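User: structure tokens for this one?
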Amino acid sequence: MSNDQDISLSQFEDIERYLLQEMEPEEATAFAVRLSPDAVLKAKTDELRLTFLAIQEGKLQSRLNQFHQHEIKTASDKKVFTVFSNGTRWLAAASIILVAAIAAWLFLKPASGEALYAAYFKPDDGPISAIGI
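Assistant:
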């Protein structure tokens, strides 16, 4: 604050209570009415408002830094759990391929009766008889 805007302790307490909304409603209204025509008091109030805001932002930044440090620490402490390791993934993939190949072979091969029938089938010439001679 500049030298022409020095604040007395009672003024500081009044402005602080006004900004932190600790005044009774009637007292706050009276202070707001006093604030309107008095440019010096308004400037002091605005400057203290900005100071309080800067303090709050500093506190918030400090708390955010602490939170982030805590999160980084807990994240590095956690064990990463994987369902499959690299070797297990290859084994699972090979098993799936093997099961699919066996299923395809069982469903796509001809039935054993059909293969036997196809190997020994000979068309019937009809009855052997002398009727047609």
